[in-house]
Amino acid sequence: MEGTNGQGKKFKVIGTRPIRHDGVDKVTGRARYGADYAFPGMLHGKVLRSPHPHAIIKSINFEKALKLPGVKAIVTSADLPEAESKIEQAGEMAINPHYLSMNILARGKVLYDGHAIAAVAATSPHIAEEALKLIEVQYEILPPAMTVDVAMKPGAPILLSDLRNKEEGDKQTNVAQHYQFKRGDLEAGFKSADFIIEREFNTAMVHQGYIEPHNAVGMYNNDGQATIYCSTQGPFDVRSLSAQVLGMPVGKIKVVPAEIGGGFGGKTTIYLEPLSVLLSKKTGHPVKLTMSRSEVLRASGPTSGSKIKVKMGATKDGKLVAAQIWMAYEAGAFPGSPVGAGAMCIIAPYAIEHFVIDAYDVVVNRPKTAAYRAPGATNAAMASETVVDELAEKCGLDPLDFRIKNAVKEGLAQIVGPPFKAIGFIETCEAIKNSPHYKSKLTGPYRGRGVASGFWFNAGMQSSATVNIHTDGTASVVTGSPDIGGSRASMAMITAEVLGLSVSDVRPVVTDTDSIGHTDVTGGSRVTFATGTAVYEAAQDAIRQLKERAAKVLEKKTEEVEFVDGSFRAIGNGVPPLSLKQLASKLARTGGPITGRASVNARGVGPGFATTCVDVEVDPDTGKVQILRATIAQDAGKAIHPSYVEGQMQGGTAQGIGWGLNEEYFYDDKGILRNIGLLDYRMPTCLDLPMIETAIVEVPNPGHPLGVRGVGEVSIVPPPAALANAIYRAIGVRMDTLPMSPPRILKAILKNRASTQSAAAD
Amino acid sequence: MHAINYEAPSTIDQAVGLLKAHGEKARPFCGGTDLIIQMRAGVRTPDYVVDLKNIKEMRNISFDAKTGLRLGAAASCIEIHESEVMRRNYPGLTEAAHLIGSLQIQNRASVGGNLCNGSPAADSTPALIAIGARARLVGPNGEREVPVEQFVLSPGRTVIQPGELLVELLAAAPAPHTSDAYLRLIPRNEMDIAIVGVGSSVTLDGDKVTAARIGLGAVAATPLLGAKAAESLIGKKLDDAALDTAARLASEQAAPIDDMRGTVEYRKHITGVLTRRTLLIAAERARKK
Amino acid sequence: MSKKTLVEATINGETVEFLCEPRQSMLECLRDVLELTGAKEGCLTGDCGACSINVNGRVVCSCLMFGPEAQGKTITTVEGLAEGNRLHTLQQKFLEHASLQCGICTPGFLMAAKGLLDRNPNPTEPEIRYALAGNLCRCTGYDKIVRAVQDAAQTLRSSNEGKAAAR
User: Fold this and answer.
1) Residue A196: enclosing H or E segment and its boundaries?
2) Rounded to an integer, what distance in angstroms lies between the CA atom of residue A415 and that of residue A205?
3) What is the pLDDT of residues A38-75, one digit of tens each?
4) CA distances from A749 to A91, A620, A624, A753, B250 (A)
């Protein structure tokens, strides 16, 4: 796939599909992920976790545990300073260090089944585990509030005694925030509608499901400097958040990002990192901590379950005129669900004149939620995209045509913020309409086809990059963006394109927090966009400096030299051009090494849209759903490496399918999490999915030098709603609960059968 | 995990000797695909783990038209799947073994271990019940046989006494026009524990059923013999009415619980559905023989 | 303190001796004792396949195997797939098809795919998906993994046919 750069020139590297530079290490097992690190004298740590969802900690006694041979240290929240209460940005979510510290080690109270209470360092992980059994904790058990319904009721158990919201004044509450977004005149809007649909939805809490559990190896040196090796999406966030929790200066912590085995937002915060440093400080040894899968599920951050009420109105010719939405999301034990983002996404694809959206962030006795790929948007789309489907049906329009008719486009307003620049929403709908999938006929009983669309803002934020020119004319490009999905290759490709090199002559490096300027998380669909911008500008900076050198060598003025097709030449005259390779060998004699650098706080973010189509077949006797075919169309702006763009589209689709059909957190009536393993937390296997067809749409983002739009997230947003719409056409019932597991679908089928039969009998 | 000792006997006598010597403190295993998970969770805490995989006789699969099947308790699921003799004579049991988890699990796990684990949701147990299998136990005081439907006493507990070892599973050779089938309902397409598992075996004379056995899994505290459902078919044609009756009786016998894998109502409904489906498949196979 | 056992096995073609506590799984032995960190821990319950290795010709989850069970066995891990600097066809195809994003599941998939192709050189798509159902990937949606295995199977078949024809 080729394309053109801003000047209409054809790309040589961008748009091709080279093999990723870190690929060989990853297929041979050489690549080092966080849990693969080992150091001389290293100890192993394990964490003691609460067996109760809500309780006061009356006492912790670890004398017996300390006496177990092999145990070297035990820490609790008493070993951490009290952290300030304020709001900080970490990745796509806001974090309060006061609450973060309480999540790392419980202070006074435990707030969910799995809440960390103490950490042990010992000579083997088995001994550390045995030590946990010897720690005695006295609890005063309190009733839990497990759902938004329970937590919002008057008289509900209160989780955080100091939590207040603006509206309730000094009253203790579990509602941390109420957001509201309004436009126009809601009453007038509904009055003008010919069809009004009003529905209520419940979605279950789900987990990002990365295959690699959390890990950290911490080393605290006698000189007060600490180093953390960990698998993280954001080494700089690990540094600043750990510094706050530990009460250490940021400059005394170095974070080395290991390769990372998946994150999807869940590894943009900290859990084990400060514990590893704390235990290392106490023992004088490096300490490694890893979570088991059950700890990941119980105690890292899933995303919110939610209750969403949607009322939407349309005129009979298919124009959406009004929307009223009430949404409450589970924040987990501490405030900070993505309900605000969900509220800004829920009707974002459509130009609706009148709306009121009320969004509530509610604490419940579940683990503190963390970001999960387009946080908040998937829950929202399940609600809005099924109501849109229902309205389209009422108006007698094809669901894609209905969307195109109401679509936002350039110049129209967002829910919050300036009007859209060039966007590709309509193009994704058209790509689906024209796809071989949509054009094919779907026949047979209990089969149905559904479509849905999704929106995500994408992020800009800060990134830094350096480009080093080597003496042989090759280059390295250094960034601080952990490579979760092949981004090293894209950084090398952008550098190669600017420098006129082949991609194999550029070595991409991901480095630690001492060795590159501040860089925000790998997440928010921002690496190719923002770090790519920094890389682009760093490479351009290198070219600028190289031009000055070339001028010296060619004995011309700098402004008389141009860089074309990988060589420097005097403009307009017959001096032989100087290749980058030739110039590189002369750098030492002409002034020294050349390093291009750039730091950006990237503006010009282009939001992402996706439209997804699925065909399903439902077994009417068991309620089981098979996916016959799936296609996703997504606007990438400019696909730097099309294979990895496709990969993001396919991966998000698979997660959305799991979210839609089988994934859910199952707490019992005592507030204990029952499905703490991958047997009963059911993610799609290879056998559950078909090939996932992709259509990359490219409406260049005017805010980026190469037209790039972030692609990592929006693909997860449409699938649950697309599945619900397909299931409706297969069984005649609209589902309003996620996941749409076989028992729920069977119940809907039988209920529908009973009511149709009794209606027929009348 | 707590500290343990690993033993790998090479004969049945050695194994029985170890089990007798250590009693409740020893636990035999083949695949370890249940035991290791339970030990990590602290559910079972043996001091001795006794690896049975080196005992050659316990891995044998042999069939004789007169004396029937001798299925070594330590034969792995994949060995069962690859056995010509198993596929031809007991396709339902073979299917069940091929459903116990991924290929990685099947390459280690055994039907014997699956039975001894005593889970009501074990996949191979309903299929063993359907073919009328008997468990042969060898202990310090001699040998005994137990019909599989009596083997599991409650979740995780079986009739095995201290010092006893399940050595093989025995079943009669199938009569002419006899075959079996196993189906289970899981939410995904692989890797799940059965929400409901049903094994059926039928013998046909023309188009009439002369013998039938039904095993029901995951719908009670132990795997069940669906006796009433099976009896209702004897002497009848396997038509819709007969299937409906058998399905209803199986469903009524099921006494499942509500848990994170399924509700009572769902499991009872599915019991009926799978009873019907397995009977049809078994009959289709029986006709062809 | 738990007493250690001496285990001797053939690992990636080499005879190896190592000490382990019986409670250490084969996965722990590989990673913590033998420094072969290619096999990964994902779930410890046999549900994700990230720890897959080949023991005596069968693909198994090393997290559900006691270290002492390795005694006398022939074991291959992902570190043993390539021949020196020459990648195995499966590894090469995974790279060409962009079948990995974060790469944590890749060693397990390679072992499972090799196990499949060793027994079934011409698998259908459903057979491939069944054989890989014990390996979870959260990044790719499996599409590019299945395509890589199909491509590898075809390449291996034609190179084997070439070898056979050349005799």
Assistant:
1) strand A195-203
2) 26
3) 999 999 999 999 999 999 999 999 999 999 999 999 99
4) 42, 7, 11, 6, 22
Query: Which of A480, A464, A463, A466 lies closest to A597, judged by CA?
Result: A466
pLDDT exceeds cutoff 90 at B253: yes
Nearest to A486 by CA among C92, C146, C98: C98
- Burial class from Cβ neighbours inside 10 Å (0-12, 13-18, 19+) for residue A61 reads exposed
Cα A98 from Cα A91, distance rounded (Å): 18
What is d(CA A333, CA A366) in angstroms, rounded to the nearest whole number? 6
Distance of CA A340 to the CA centre of its chain: 15
Taking one residue from A and the other from B, the number of pairs with CB-CB distance under 8 angstroms is 52
Q: C45 — contact with chain A (CB < 8 Å)?
A: yes
φ, ψ of residue A121 to 5 degrees: the values are -115, 130
pLDDT at C167: 55
pLDDT tens readout for residues C20-58: 999 999 999 999 999 999 999 999 999 999 999 999 999
What's the helix, strand, coil split of chain C in %, to 5? 45, 15, 40
Test A622 with B262 for CB contact under 8 angstroms.
Answer: no
User: Looking at CA atoms only, how far is residue C154 from chain B in angstroms?
Assistant: 22
Q: Provide the H-helix boundaries in B122-239.
A: 124-130, 227-231
Q: Residue A68: which of C32, B3, B4 has the closest Cα?
A: B3
Task: Give me the residue from C23, C47, C59 closest to B107, CB to CB.
Answer: C59
- Whether the CB of C36 is below 8 Å from some CB of chain A: the reply is yes
- What is the Cα–Cα distance from C34 to C27, expressed in whole angstroms? 10
Residue B125 in contact with residue B152, Cβ under 8 Å?
Answer: yes
| C64 neighbourhood in chain B, CB within 8 Å | 31-33, 36-37, 105, 108
Q: Which segments within A206-305 are labelled E, that is strand?
A: 215-220, 226-230, 253-257, 287-290
- Which residues on neighbouring strands pair with residue C61, listed in sequence order? C52
Beta bridge partners, A597, equal: A466
Residue A416 is encoded by which pair of tokens? 């919050």
Q: What is the mean pLDDT of chain A?
A: 95
Pick left, alpha or beta for residue A367 (phi over 0 → left; psi -120 to 50 → alpha; otherwise beta).
beta
Ramachandran category for residue A621: left, alpha or beta (phi over 0 → left; psi -120 to 50 → alpha): alpha
The residue whose two tokens read 């193009």 is A427
Query: Residue A531 gets which letter from DSSP?
Result: I
**Cα B35-C135-A37 angle, rounded to 5 deg:** 80
Per-residue confidence (pLDDT) for residue C43, from 0 to 100: 98
Q: Where are the alpha helices (DSSP H) in A500-585?
A: 532-554, 580-584
**A698, A704, A709, A712: CA torsion to nearest 10:** 140
Query: b/e map of C93-103 (b: 16 or more CB within 10 Å)?
Result: bbbbbbbbbbb
Establish how many alpha carbons lie within 13 A of residue A307's alpha carbon, considering only the half-sphere containing its beta carbon.
11
In b/e form, how buried is each residue of A418-436, taking b as 16+ CB within 10 angstroms? eebebbbbbbbbbbbbebe
Which residues in chain B touch residue A743, judged by CB atoms under 8 angstroms apart?
262-263, 266
Q: How many residues comprise chain A?
A: 762
Structure tokens at A487: 């981004």
Report which of residues A1 and A199 the model is more confident about: A199
Sign of CA dihedral A696, A700, A704, A706: positive
Q: Cα–Cα distance between C48 and B193 in angstroms, integer?
A: 15
Tell me which residue of A56, A144, A65, A47 sits closest to A107, measured CA to CA: A56
Instruction: Please tell me which of the candidates B192, B259, B266 has its beta carbon nearest to residue A682.
Output: B192
Alpha carbons within 13 A on the beta-carbon side of A753? 9
Residues in chain C: 167
- Quick one: closest CA in B to C113, which residue? B103
The answer to whether the pTM exceeds 0.90 is: yes
Q: Which band of pLDDT confidence, cut at 50, 70 and 90, is reported for residue A4?
A: very low
Q: What is the DSSP string of A557-579?
A: -GGGEEEETTEEEETTS-SPPEE
